[in-house]
Specification:
alpha/beta; 7-stranded mixed beta sheet; 3-stranded antiparallel beta sheet
Length: 443
């Protein structure tokens, strides 16, 4: 079963270390099926419980994944390997439309906000034991959430969307549990789930968000949680429509025990309204980051959810970093109060770069998708070839492998810094690098 590689060891830790050594050396490649526990126990002359403990350690560390009767396999990607490593080096003179960053020109200046935060700190220094959430930030955030139809709930502040999602997953799930996530989807989330010892369950999507049938299939397969991007989905630009939200709520009604996490990282830079799914659920969380609209270095996200979830998250946060700097919180309050960002203007600016590119590609017979945000997703038959040919033509795009599990190949284009006079040349280059394809559905 394992070729020439032999797993050795008498104790659980030794057996686990032997498997990890094989994975690290490449002798046990991604997807390699491991021997059944009883079979390996007999070969090593140990109790099956010892092998079970070794496999549990490996699963908890994200080295292997287990799937009932289908057995245990080496994870498709080791948890220690970040998908961000799947990128192209951008030579001098090549136009970079791969980085996934917002346009710095559309971000507000932070000097006044930070100065105001420092002034307030001078008036009343923050000390240990105080409320981890600035009351003004909590009030403004909750009012904004109410206006968008997000169910009522307490507010916590975390260090960005990924930090919030990680803490919510850890608050409810155990290693080995399955999490339904969008495919293609956010590369960092696709890395995070297995790194927590959880099992990713891919969910196909289209321009209006996750497909209801795919969500239902993932939940029926045993997924304990579902993560949905409200709008500006990375990498496809999908946004959950009102009609799709209704369909997804109907599916979720049949699975009341599933944890729902909604990621609204597009808040402040997308003019399409969110359509929250969480109403009436037992355990849910809704996350809003300020990174895309106000600056990636403002490591702050607002989290709301049911009381149990938020209490667990805040309790664990208290035993780690304690709180997100209230200086940062007060700076964000100033940005919100002064309306430093007009979401309509930011959305219009990104739309003027995104929509013409999508239209230009479709006019050339190339499928392209980008309903919101600043990402455009282009399905391609040969991902490596398309990236290479575009690089040769002077354009660096992001390989779709950073964002995929079982979805078809594609490339992501970041339009945030795209100039009007670059749209047609870029469309020509993409059309020359890919073969025109049919309709898209990532399943």
């Amino acid at each position: 079963m394992l070729g020439e590689y032999r797993i050795v060891g008498r104790g659980a830790s030794d057996i686990a270390a032997s498997v990890e050594e094989g994975v690290g050396s490449g002798a046990l490649p991604p997807g390699q099926l491991l021997p059944p526990m009883r079979e390996l126990a007999a070969e090593l002359g140990v109790n099956p419980n010892t092998v079970a403990a070794a496999y549990r350690q490996l699963r908890d560390r994200g080295v292997i994944e287990t799937n009932g009767r289908r057995g245990s396999r080496v994870r498709p990607r080791p948890a220690s390997t970040a998908r961000d490593a799947i990128r192209v080096d951008v030579p001098e003179g090549v136009r970079n439309v791969a980085d996934g960053n917002p346009d710095p020109a559309l971000l507000p200046p932070l000097a006044d906000a930070l100065a105001e935060a420092a002034r307030r700190e001078a008036e009343s220094a923050e000390m240990y034991g105080q409320d981890p959430v600035d009351p003004d930030l909590a009030r403004l955030a909750r009012a904004d959430l109410d206006a968008d139809g997000v169910p009522g709930g307490p507010v916590a502040v975390l260090s960005g969307s990924l930090d919030a999602i990680e803490r919510v997953l850890a608050a409810h799930l155990r290693p080995g549990d399955a999490v339904a996530i969008e495919d293609p989807g956010w590369g960092s989330l696709l890395d995070l789930v297995p790194a927590l010892g959880l099992r990713p369950e891919p969910v196909a999507l289209d321009d209006e968000g996750p497909l209801p049938g795919a969500v239902e299939a993932a939940l029926r397969a045993g997924a304990k949680a579902l993560v949905v991007t409200c709008r500006a989905q990375n990498p496809t630009g999908a946004a959950v429509s009102r009609a799709r939200a209704r369909e997804l709520r109907r599916v979720l009604d049949d699975f009341p025990g599933v944890l729902l996490i909604e990621d609204d990282h597009g808040h402040g830079m997308v003019d399409l309204p969110p359509h929250p799914l969480a109403g009436g659920r037992t355990h849910w969380a809704f996350v809003r980051s300020v990174a895309k609209a106000y600056g990636p270095d403002l490591r702050l996200a607002v989290l709301t959810g049911d009381a149990v979830t938020v209490d667990r998250v805040r309790g664990r946060q208290r035993l780690g970093p304690g709180w997100v700097s209230r200086l940062l919180q007060r700076a964000v309050v100033h940005l919100w109060r002064t309306r430093a960002v007009d979401p309509r203007e930011v959305a219009r600016a990104y739309g003027e770069r995104r929509d013409p590119l999508v239209a230009a590609l479709r006019a050339r017979g190339v499928e392209a998708h980008g309903r919101s945000g600043f990402s455009v997703w282009v399905p391609v038959p040969d991902e490596t070839g398309a990236v290479s040919r575009l690089l040769h033509a002077g354009w660096a795009v992001s390989p779709g492998a950073r964002f995929r599990m079982s979805a078809a190949p594609g490339v992501r284009v970041t339009v945030s810094s795209l100039r009007a006079d670059e749209i047609e040349p870029l469309a020509d280059a993409i059309a020359g690098a890919v073969r025109p394809g049919g309709g898209w559905r990532y399943d």
